[in-house]
Amino acid sequence: MRTTSLPYILVVDDEEDICEIIKFNLESEGFRVDTAHSAEAALQKQLKKYQLFVFDIMMKGMSGFKLTDEIRNKKKLKTPVVFLTAKNTENDKLTGFSLGADDYITKPFSVRELNARVKAVLRRPNLNEDMEPVNLKVGELELDQDKKKLFLEGNKVDLTPHEYYIMKLFMNNTGKVFNREEILNYAWKENINVLDRTVDVHITRLRKKLGEYGKFLISRSGHGYCFEIE
Questions:
Q1: What is the predicted pLDDT for the residue at 92?
Q2: Helices (H), 78-135
């Protein structure tokens, strides 16, 4: 039985058969699914109600890239986007990720792969980014989200992009425990082939970079990590 708490997905593809196949299989997994056969039709829907978009790229009229640009920059929506397309060159993928895509599946695709990737994107922590402040402050730590920089007592802490996203996750959710898979899904969204051990290595590096604040990156045995100031 469907309930309103189930994730709501919008699939946009100008091939009606593909839309129906995706809809049938995702609904079989328990999701609620709407479809549209053009980007223009998708823009007429109440887009804020969806938790995930699945967009084809090469469509008649407006492309999936243009559609994503519209919802990101004009409608200011941070809803996750999965591209489903025959365009599989490195430049195509880089373009998709630069527009804010969360995953990229090339045609032909297997239904099992599609289901797995959709579930992985939906499992990523929801930080409600439309509402988050420009700067996050926890104690003497300040994360400038516009400049992608971390400051400790006013001094810049040099972070790699993955370290930045780990700190963003923790500072948005102080005290909440995240397992390694959740951290990987958030901080390495462009690469699903990263080992769990990578998280441990980055946490160790972050502890060193944070000095006295490093002790607040806490390991919960058997559960994961959290950032908690005592």
A1: 63
A2: 90-98, 111-123
Correct CATH for 8-123 of 3.40.50.2300, 3.40.50.300, 3.30.1330.60, 3.30.420.40: 3.40.50.2300
Mean pLDDT (the chain) is 84
- 226 against 95, higher pLDDT: 226
Closest CA to 225 of 174, 185, 190, 152: 174
Considering all CA atoms of the chain, what is the largest pairwise distance in Å, rounded to the nearest integer? Answer: 58
The Cβ-side half-sphere exposure at 45, using a 13 Å CA radius, reads 22
CATH no., domain 135-227:
1.10.10.10
The whole-number pLDDT of residue 58 equals 86
Cis peptide before 108 (omega within 30 of 0): yes
Residue 96 has pLDDT above 80, yes or no: no
